[in-house]
Amino acid sequence: MLTEFTAQRRAALRALLERGQVDGDLCANANLDLLVDVFYGVLWYHLVVGHAPLDPRGARDLAVHLLTAGAAGGIGAAGLAPTSRPGEGG
Question: What is the pLDDT of residues 34-50, one digit of tens each?
């Protein structure tokens, strides 16, 4: 049940990010999967660890950071070559 729920949420966020690429708000080579991971990593960290509440300001700041990274081609984009993981080559 949790796997299906999270997969649906991830797909919904990825669809929004893809629309941002089509509209030109995000760089064409932005790593959308990594942006989704960053978003949900922060969200789950706040929920599970209780680091701090994810209030409207925190949610807005998170969205701004993700969009800024995506617009600049930041996270995982061609200009910032990520390191390869074991078994992936490169």
Answer: 999 999 999 888 888 88
